[in-house]
Amino acid sequence: MEKPTVALVYQAVQALYHDPDPAGKERASVWLGELQRSMYAWEMADQLLQLKQDVESCYFAAQTMKMKIQTSFFELPPETHIALRDSLLSHIQSLKDLSPIIVTQLALAIADLALQMASWKGCVHTLIEKYSNDVSSMTFLIEILTVLPEEVHSRSLRIGANRRTEIIEDLAYYSSTVVTLLMTCVEKSGSNEKMLIKVFRCLGSWFNLGVLDSNFMANNQLLMVLFQVLQRDETSTNLHEAASDCVCSALYAIENVDTHMPLALQLFQGVLTLETAYHMAVAREDLDKVLNYCRIFTELCETFLETTVKSPGQGMGDLRTLELLLICAGHPQYEVVEISFNFWYRLGENLYKTNDPALHGIFRPYIQRLLHGLARHCQLDPDHEGIPEDTDDFGEFRMRVSDLVKDVIFLVGSMECFSQVATFWKLGVRAGGAAARDCPYRRALHQH
């Protein structure tokens, strides 16, 4: 390929997005793909970003930059790395208001550059020092700080284990600085929903990397803000989801509870305050929020599973965690209870290994109530005809119920499940026999 002009590249991008002839779009796509694989892509992408003609050309250029840094960074001599970094930072600042998608692509390019550019020491410190005092730059700064931890384990980057370890240690060193910046953003933006979503996404990203200091986070106001957002009825769906994702990431990050005790206690107590909010979401028939709460309750139970089995009813082995899941099991939509299935599998496995009758006796009532809830969910509608297909959503749910029953049947005994079968049989007679013939409990008992 000969070196093209930036005007020719721009024409090809326009053809890709706007040519009414499919053949023209295809030719443009092939040519642009060839350009992206060539050495000329670096210069052409940089020039397109400088021109700022429109969203399409800037998006193509930003995407090209990200792809080249991910897959072809070796093409650039080391002496050009600083110039590339400065150029990308200049572009993201000048294009920050054009499109969030472009900002994300450039943020990924900057993050991937930072991870591969060994000479860029303390990249987090550099970015915060450069942009944290400029309110207009906060949006893209937080976007970079969000994708940076996410890209550490990216398979697209050709970096070795030693470099990844070095990066993680560097990010851990500056993690408290990032959290402080996020709290400052919240204080300055007040109840700005878009900013809160960005803050929660960023915080969740750092939790996922596992580098946040537990003692620092346990006493940080951001945790209080998170739970306040989740407790409010008026919280929007998008903000609620972002806050829920963040809490789930935090709970996953402290799975080794003993080494994260202060933060574990704060999260444990915080989640227990969400029961009333869950009931309000049910009353408002807000299924999205109901599902979010159930995800949080399930993650709480997963995190404290070992503690619950070792010291049921004591401290953070408080059995109110199981009560939360059983409340969710009472929701009329089976998608809600299905979220918790993996926890019940794991609980059954742990209790089976302990083989302690006294311990089994403590958990038996909870399993019995779970089975009663599942029995209701597996009922067919009174006007249903025939046996449901195993391949549809409801059929697959019933199959998963059957698998779950097999894993917990030892806790309640066969007679309990037989009583459930009897219930199904009566229901089946009323529904034309389909429920009785295809009862998941009956299947589980037969296989057991």
UniProtKB/TrEMBL annotation:
Ranges where the Exportin-1/Importin-beta-like domain occurs: 100-246
InterPro entries assigned to the protein according to its UniProt record, in alphabetical order: ARM-like, ARM-type_fold, Exportin-1/Importin-b-like, Importin-beta_N, Importin_beta-like_NTR, TPR_TNPO3_IPO13_2nd
UniProt-recorded Gene Ontology molecular function terms: small GTPase binding
A biological-process GO annotation: protein import into nucleus
Sequence intervals crossing the membrane: none
Domain Importin N-terminal: 30-93
Cellular component GO terms, alphabetical: cytoplasm
Protein's name in the database: Transportin 3
Source organism: Oncorhynchus tshawytscha
